[in-house]
């Protein structure tokens, strides 16, 4: 079965939300609710109530990055101090833990920030090419719903969008 | 009294107004740019001269080895703190009034840090020895001292600068996509297309964006505090009279937030006029920043008094002598001016009608920043010129024109970077302003609904 991509643009979030709710309640053959993507000019956390809880896993990257940064920093600093025989220590500790904790702390943050951003790029699927079904109105004031459906279900989906006052419907046949 | 941002403002208009600022600012923009370029030119000239001849032309020698360079370094580091305050702390506190102004505050953070970094190199004289501050060993495998606050400083500033740049960029991605979608084809559009990373505003992107922004904000707050605490440790962990004070780190952090907030007021006034942002950088927002600045001014005043008291009652004669010398010696006019600008001038901000007066607040913000710059100078120089040994009491090392020229040039460099940024990238966050008006109108709708329900309930009860 060939797949169709349909993008419907709505004037506001409420209309798009109503369309999503109807799509969720319906059992249209050839359409999976998980394939629905909402595009909006601002963040709508309330969308989770209709789209269902979709996870963001960036925090795991953060945890890894912060621990990696901190541990690596302490290991490298302590390692260099441990191998540092060129200068006499005069009875002072070879690895001064309180002093080393300052740089460990800085690297804990540095690792946390860098890897969080890497995690964001991976989890958000960026950088990416813009999809063909994209309207610049989404970055202005309209809300878009993008669905991937089988050709047989396209007409039903479009009728739902029309019912909820979609301003414009774009369609593209593809894989 | 001017009103706050209209809830009914069209979102397309928000895009249009901000995008217009990228293309057609008021002519004052070009005047500022030319002046900044000239100031920067003076700074570069002085630096080249100092590089060719040596540090003698700056009148820097033992004991006065830091002079205006390190004082100005601390000033620029301090300026950077308010960007984090506005964008991270207020973000976590859900203060929505920060939304139209946090972008330029973040940019200010980044460019202040870049300017501060220059002074580390300038004060060395021998620029090629900058690598001494970087943690890698020399040819004899002698590592830098990891217990030195100077090394911590280099790492902390690098961490803060790179994290701030990332924070600024991440927060700007949705706006870069707007620029990509709505600007005319040309080199700018190509630039925004690359930088927007293919952002489409999908629910997946927003979800991850929200978590990332919040997480980086959480990291930046302790980072900002640590950076200035470490800068304070450069002084407090030494044995020099006047510097070995326990309250230095919080004192430095308060001073940093103070000067940063004052700078935000200055730049708020300039951007509001130059880029025609009167509808977004509103007077109620100015009022809130002014109140915040006043609160921080009082914290700084308290910590300043604590510092004087710690020295005065410590029975450390050398530190006491430095304090007396500050108040009565050759630095006295500057020390008193610092106290006046830092602790007395802020009381103007208590007067209600001045809180929204643009000319008054502009003048006050400049005076506050003058006070904060003098504060840093009064920390650095008097101690060097009145140390433990009388033979080091040297009052003949007044900053030369070369030093003043480089300090002057740094303001030009900062202005060039900052104004260039505002011309190239949206300095008002379009998507956050939209979020702000959306949530405000939603909240109003809820209030109206609940009021209508209450009225209906009362009417029903009355009917019974």
Description:
- The complex is a heterodimer of chains A (175) and B (464).
- With 175 residues, chain A is of the alpha+beta class.
- Chain A has five helices and four strands, in the order E-H-E-H-H-H-E-H-E.
- The relative contact order of chain A is 0.31.
- Chain B is mostly helical and 464 residues long.
- Chain B has one domain: Formate dehydrogenase/DMSO reductase domain (Formate dehydrogenase/DMSO reductase fold), CATH 1.20.1630.
- Chain B has helices at residues 11-23, 28-53, 67-79, 81-92, 102-124, 149-182, 187-195, 203-236, 248-274, 283-312, 317-328, 332-344, 352-355, 358-385, 401-424, 430-463.
- In chain B, helix 3 crosses helix 9 (248-274), helix 4 (81-92) packs across helix 8 and helix 8 (203-236) crosses helix 9.
- At the A-B interface, strand 2, helix 3 and helix 4 of A face helix 1, helix 6, helix 8 and helix 16 of B.
Helix-and-strand structural type of chain A: alpha+beta
CATH-defined topology of the largest domain in chain A: Alpha-Beta Plaits
What's the main sheet of chain A like? 4 strands, antiparallel
**Which geometry of chain B do the CA atoms define?**
globular
Tell me the β content of chain A.
Answer: 5-15%
**Strands of chain A, total number:** 4
| Category from helices, strands and their pairing of chain B | mainly alpha
Low-confidence stretches of chain A: none
* Mean of all residue-level pLDDT scores of chain A: 86
């Amino acid at each position: 079965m060939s797949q169709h991509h349909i993008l419907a643009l709505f004037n506001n979030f409420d209309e798009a939300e109503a369309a999503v709710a109807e799509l969720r309640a319906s059992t249209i053959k050839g359409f999976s609710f998980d394939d629905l993507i909402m595009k909006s000019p601002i963040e709508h956390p309330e969308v989770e109530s209709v789209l269902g809880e979709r996870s963001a896993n960036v925090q795991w990257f953060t945890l890894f990055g912060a621990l990696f940064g901190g541990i690596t920093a302490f290991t490298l600093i302590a390692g260099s101090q441990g191998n540092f025989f060129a200068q006499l220590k005069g009875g002072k500790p070879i690895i001064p833990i309180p002093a080393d904790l300052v740089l460990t702390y800085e690297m804990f943050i540095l690792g946390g920030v860098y890897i969080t951003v890497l995690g964001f790029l991976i989890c958000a699927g960026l950088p990416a090419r813009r999809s063909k079904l994209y309207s610049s109105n989404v970055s202005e004031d309209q809300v878009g719903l993008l669905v991937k459906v089988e050709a047989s279900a396209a007409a039903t989906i479009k009728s739902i969008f029309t019912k909820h006052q979609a301003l414009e419907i774009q369609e593209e046949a593809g894989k | 009294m001017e009103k706050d941002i209209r809830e009914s403002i069209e979102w397309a208009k928000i895009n249009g107004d901000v995008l217009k600022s990228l293309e057609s600012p008021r002519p004052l923009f070009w005047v500022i740019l030319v002046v900044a370029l000239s100031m920067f030119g003076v700074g570069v000239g002085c630096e080249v001269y100092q590089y060719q001849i040596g540090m003698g032309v700056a009148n820097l020698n033992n004991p006065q080895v830091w002079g205006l360079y390190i004082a100005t370094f601390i000033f620029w580091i301090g300026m950077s703190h308010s960007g984090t305050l506005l964008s991270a702390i207020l973000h976590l506190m859900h203060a929505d009034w920060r939304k139209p102004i946090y972008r330029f505050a973040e940019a200010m953070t980044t460019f202040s840090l870049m300017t501060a970094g220059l002074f580390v190199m300038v004060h060395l004289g021998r620029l090629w020895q900058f690598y001494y501050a970087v943690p890698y060993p020399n040819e004899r495998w002698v590592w830098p001292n990891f217990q030195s606050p100077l090394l911590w400083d280099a790492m902390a500033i690098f961490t803060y600068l790179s994290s701030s740049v990332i924070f600024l960029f991440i927060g700007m991605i949705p706006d870069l996509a707007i620029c990509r979608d709505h600007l005319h084809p040309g080199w700018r559009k190509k630039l925004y297309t690359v930088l927007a990373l293919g952002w489409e505003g999908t629910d997946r992107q927003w979800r991850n964006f929200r978590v990332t922004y919040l997480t980086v904000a959480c990291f930046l707050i302790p980072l900002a505090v640590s950076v200035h605490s470490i800068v304070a440790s450069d002084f407090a962990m030494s044995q020099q009279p006047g510097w070995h004070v326990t309250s230095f780190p919080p004192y430095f952090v308060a001073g940093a937030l103070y000067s940063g907030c004052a700078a935000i007021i200055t730049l708020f006034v300039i951007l509001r006029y130059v880029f025609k942002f009167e509808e977004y950088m509103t007077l109620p927002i100015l009022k809130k920043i002014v109140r915040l600045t006043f609160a921080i001014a009082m914290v700084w005043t308290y910590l300043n008094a604590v510092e004087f008291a710690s020295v005065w009652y410590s029975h450390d004669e050398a530190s006491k002598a430095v304090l007396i010398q500050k108040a009565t010696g050759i630095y006295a006019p500057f020390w008193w001016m610092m106290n006046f600008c830092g602790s007395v001038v802020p009381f103007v901000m208590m007067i209600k009608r001045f809180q929204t007066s643009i000319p008054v607040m502009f003048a006050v913000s400049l005076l506050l920043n003058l006070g904060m710059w003098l504060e840093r100078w009064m920390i650095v120089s008097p101690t060097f010129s009145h140390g433990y040994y009388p033979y080091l009491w040297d009052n003949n090392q007044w900053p030369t024109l070369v030093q003043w020229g480089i300090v002057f040039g740094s303001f030009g460099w900062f202005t060039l970077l900052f104004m260039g940024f505002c011309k190239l990238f949206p300095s008002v966050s379009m998507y956050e302003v939209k979020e702000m008006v959306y949530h405000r109108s939603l909240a109003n709708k809820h209030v109206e609904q609940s009021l209508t329900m209450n009225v209906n309930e009362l009417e029903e009860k009355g009917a019974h």
